[in-house]
Design a protein that fits this description.
This protein is of the alpha/beta class and 369 residues long. Helix content is 47%, strand content 14%. The structure holds coproporphyrinogen I. One of its GO terms (cellular component) is cytosol.
Length: 369
């Protein structure tokens, strides 16, 4: 059943929302990070003559690309087709997404003057994204959630400071450690932009949000807690009133799972390196420490993950085995009370050369497990 309040749908039968809130879903929900994109021939076709960033500001096109994997794979959620740098682009920051590389800035942001010059983003500037969300919601049925997203301040800061994709994030870490005050100024500038991007999507009616701190795993826990966590926490708090599940994810964040859980999400995404039952245990141990004496239910989160994207190349038998292992690790964590639910996903995004049929088959296997 769908009950509409303004733009927000109240979905009573969406497996993803049930899993996120610790209710029993009608089937094990699954979606894949980067499920839209190069693995799909229909995506390559519609993107043929249009730049990546252009396509993020065309409502019909972004809605079409968002829906393609939902139609093809029967996943339980759509992820908005956009990018973490879209709010920067919308606000007028000079950057591009270079094919095969990623976001590249015309001028890196490294000084107080550079930070001061960063604009804020307005609702009008994000209107094409909101319009696209409206179109997507007309097409989804009442079991399929639309997930909105944003990049977290650390990951965005890395692109701004390095000027593009970075292997070691050395300039970012150098700024953090050599001039913590300047770092805080940058974080204070990026955080409201992230909140505005999420609020624009929430206002347009997304059913859940995911905050990607993709590169946070490069940090020590100590640096993460000092330089990153306060800002991610501020973002989760700022969107709490939407009353929709909030997911947090980063790559290689096994050592940070507890600290990232403190930021305040309902769901923690886990990459493929840590078994889900181990991840759940780490999360619960940290949250129990934080909430000492409070409602024990607050100490566990739902889990999202965590099939290695490379396994989609390994054939059906290997895929089935790995999916079953992951589901049983998640179920064990739920049974122990270490986790509230399980949303199946990859441990990071679909790799560009993945066979689309392998993705469809994986979804069938997951739904049957
Ligand atoms: O189905 C989907 O998930 C598509 C929507 C989507 C999302 C959620 C895109 C489209 N980008 C993102 C988020 C995003 N963008 C993240 C966080 C998720 C993750 O860790 O993968 C990050 C780090 C980016 C930055 C980015 N944009 C990169 C990574 C570069 C690096 O540093 O290694 C790249 C390659 C892009 C471009 C991009 N974004 C999306 C697509 C389909 C593409 C490739 C487009 C093209 O070149 O044509």
């Amino acid at each position: 059943m769908i009950v509409r309040m303004n733009n927000r749908r109240t979905l009573t039968d969406a497996p993803i929302l049930d899993a996120a809130y610790g209710r029993t879903p009608s089937r094990r929900p699954v979606w894949f990070m980067r499920q839209a994109g190069r693995s799909l021939p229909e995506y390559r076709e519609v993107r043929k003559d249009i730049g990546m960033l252009d396509s993020c500001f065309r409502p019909e096109l972004l809605a079409e690309i968002t829906m393609q994997p939902v139609r093809r794979h029967d996943v339980d959620a759509a992820i908005l087709f956009s990018d973490i740098v879209v709010p920067l682009k919308a606000a007028g920051v000079n950057l591009d997404i270079v094919p095969g590389r990623g976001p590249v800035m015309d001028t890196p942001v490294r000084s107080e003057a550079d930070i001061k010059a960063l604009p804020e983003v307005t609702e009008e500037q994000l209107a094409p994204v909101a319009e696209g969300i409206g179109l997507i919601l007309q097409e989804l049925n009442d079991t399929q959630a639309l997930i909105g997203f944003a990049g977290a301040p650390f990951t965005l800061a890395s692109y701004l400071i390095e000027g593009g994709p970075s292997r070691n994030h050395e300039r970012t870490k150098a700024l953090m450690h050599s001039d913590p005050e300047l770092w805080d100024h940058l974080m204070q500038k990026i955080t409201p932009m992230v909140i505005a991007f999420l609020r624009a999507q929430i206002g347009a009616g997304v059913d859940a949000i995911q905050l990607f701190d993709s590169w946070a795993g490069y940090l020590t826990e100590r640096d993460y807690r000092r330089f990153v966590l306060p800002y991610s926490k501020e973002i989760f708090q700022a969107v709490a009133d939407a009353g929709i599940p909030r997911i947090h994810f980063g790559v290689g964040t096994g050592e940070l799972l507890g600290a990232m859980a403190e930021a305040g999400p309902e769901v923690m995404g886990v990459d493929w390196r840590v078994p889900l039952d181990v991840a759940a245990n780490r999360i619960r141990a940290t949250l129990s420490d934080v909430h000492r004496g409070a409602d024990p239910a607050e100490n566990s989160l739902a889990l999202q993950g965590n099939l290695d994207p490379a396994i989609l190349f390994a054939g059906e038998d290997a895929m089935t085995q790995e999916i079953q292992r992951i589901c049983s690790e998640a179920d064990r964590a739920i049974k122990r009370g270490d986790a509230r639910g399980h949303i199946f996903n990859l441990g990071h995004g679909v790799l560009p050369n993945t066979d689309a049929d392998a993705i469809t088959r994986a979804v069938e296997i997951i739904h049957a497990t």
